[in-house]
What does this fold into?
Amino acid sequence: MSQLADGAPVITIVLVDDQELVRAGFRMVLDAQPDMRVVGEAADGLAAIEMARTCPADVMVMDARMPRLDGVEATKRIREAGDRPRVLMLTTFDLDEYAFAALKAGASGFLLKDVPPEELLFAIRAVHSGDSVVAPSTTRRLIDRFAALLPGGEPDPPAELGELTEREREVLTLVAQGLSNQEIAHRLFVSEATVKTHVGRVLAKLGLRDRVQAVVFAYEHGLVRAGHRP
It folds into this structure.
């Protein structure tokens, strides 16, 4: 693993987009960062899957819509094959419907393709550190807009929920409603560190990767409903 002079790791990145000019623009921005290095490129989902096998990287920046195989299916296959790389999905305003599917497929988050460079850099660093990059407000919008994609009726609660304490279940519900750790701490009159601990335990007990998956889990199993506001 490459490291900076201070010992911090260099984040290795693979770019996946069917437009060569888009990849070139991203590469220019990313390679200019001392803690990032683009180690590979692919022009479609099938090539991305092969790249994940042959060119180990920390983060894959993946376009949602590509020929031969789209980014959602590619993400699903890559994530099923192992832990690396983490996938950051890129969408456009016209293709928001890919976002929910991308998160369910295993993407660690998604961004609009026209975000400012500093937001892309922040997102890559966040994904690399194990966080999701879907802001609480975006989570609320996403879940509300795509409520039709969620199961209807009253699903039976999964057995794993029985392993949660009452406070952990409460924290899970607030996360799913789109509250940040700071907002949850204020609501429950505890510290942010305590909330972070609860979130970590929830993820571990439910076998979830990050808080984005926790949101999807809570909505799928009827703990909260689309359109509900805390």
Q: What stands out?
A: The longest strand covers residues 36-42.
